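During the first year of the project, the team set up a workflow for recording each protein of interest as an amino acid sequence followed immediately by a discrete structure-token representation. This format lets reviewers and collaborators read both layers of information side by side without switching files. As required by the reporting guidelines, we include two representative entries from the current panel. The first entry is reproduced here exactly as it appears in our internal archive.
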Amino acid sequence: MRVIIDTNCLLASIYPSSIHYWLYTAFKMEYFDWVISNEVLLEYEEKLEERYSAQTAHLVLNILSVAPNVIQSEPFFRWNLVENDADDNKFVDLAIASNADYLVTNDKDFNPIKKMDFPKLNIVSIGEFKKIVLP
């Protein structure tokens, strides 16, 4: 299954003491394919450095660059569907371009998109995704 992980979920899942560490473990066990783009990677790097450190950012990006279940995809069309935070459009555009099964986020700015008939996206919280991946 192809999955887009919003930055807020990545940040919440990388430390072993986190209640969301299961996301990293499920990724490591190849329970899903993590879809990334250059734009998403740049945001990951920026936010990881802000919240943790440059060393942590380097480690996470290195893992994502060599893991066998990472898919690189680049959107060529901008849908501009996220109205409240245009910076989040990169995740929606990537989900559409890569035909992702899920976009995992805890950001409420994505909620209006859940109600759209087209393009249809499965936007789920990290808790909902846990029930899908680890039933």
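The second entry, processed by the same pipeline in the following quarter, appears below.
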Amino acid sequence: MAVILALDVGGKRTGMAVSDEEGIFAFPLQTVETSKLVVEIRNLMRERNLGEIVMGMPVNLKNEATDGTIKAKQVFAGLKKAFPALEISTIDERFTSRMAKDALLAGGMKKSDRRQKENTDKVSAALILQSYLEQKSRFGSGTQGKPNTNGI
């Protein structure tokens, strides 16, 4: 089975996480400059059997676009163009940054390490991916079970 890559896209940096080949667990991978994302994904494809990309789509509590939504949509379109053979989808990413910070705290990470935004970004990507994997597991891989793509 192929690995799924998750992205937590930001204006400057993008957190990356990958699944295991069985599609059960999500693991934080790295943080890259958003402008270098396509190059990093190409490198990752040389190392792993990448079969799908899922990225967080930022929306507010009313399910409306935020400042980050525009950037995420631009990155989404760029990824679709750069990787036409890969399935690329989006998932609601509300609260993942807050949950990532809480997870880092609960995991005992030192305060100085928690302040490094890169750590929060890659853990956020792992939370996005774990949510996606759970939805896939719950609903199956048919069209009825497709995770929410927020209209993209």
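For the second entry, the following points were noted during internal review. Helices lie at 37-47, 67-82, 96-106, 111-114, 117-139. The chain has a mean pLDDT of 80. Both points are flagged for discussion at the upcoming steering committee meeting.
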